[in-house]
Write a structure and sequence with these properties.
The chain has 4 helices and 4 strands. It is α+β, with helices and mostly antiparallel strands. The chain has 2 domains: 66 residues, no CATH class; 66 residues, no CATH class. A two-stranded antiparallel ribbon has the order 1-2. A hairpin with a 6-residue loop joins strand 3 and strand 4. The longest helix is centred in the N-terminal third of the chain and has 12 residues. It is elongated, with a radius of gyration of 31 Å.
């Protein structure tokens, strides 16, 4: 047997092993560690085996967190007695809460927004406007 043929035969003997090694490299995934704490302000990105595609799971994580405990207060309480509104406002107020009055003589109303925007000029930085709020409670 010629030297050249022997080298070629030796290199094809381990074709299956070479293919297994190649497939192991392609399908390799680093283990995903569960963090001690979760920062819901940061995105959650993972790579999937489909051509090492990056998948954003941030929305799924936020939905799961919201399922177990609301991330913020929101809702509307419709109160018909002035004392009920005073009690509600005192319970949920902050330094940024506001009370709006509609003095319409036929149907006067009072509206309290417990999580109103803070006072001061708008300042937009890398984390948004620190004086902004959701105005949803």
């Amino acid at each position: 047997m010629s030297e050249q043929f022997h080298d070629c035969a030796a290199s094809t003997e381990n074709t299956a092993q070479t293919m297994r090694d190649l497939m192991a490299d392609i399908g390799h995934h680093d283990p995903i560690a569960i963090p001690e704490t979760v920062d819901l302000t940061k995105p959650l990105l993972i790579t999937t085996p489909n051509h090492r595609q990056v998948t954003d799971l941030t929305g799924h994580r936020l939905a799961a967190a919201e399922f177990f405990k609301p991330l913020r207060r929101k809702g509307i309480a419709r109160l018909t007695q002035l004392q009920s509104l005073v009690d509600w406002a005192n319970r949920f107020k902050s330094e940024n809460s506001v009370l709006f009055a509609n003095p319409d003589q036929s149907q006067p109303t009072l509206t309290c927004i417990a999580d109103y925007h803070a006072s001061g000029p708008v300042t937009i930085g890398h984390a948004g406007d620190p004086t902004a709020s959701h105005c949803a409670h």
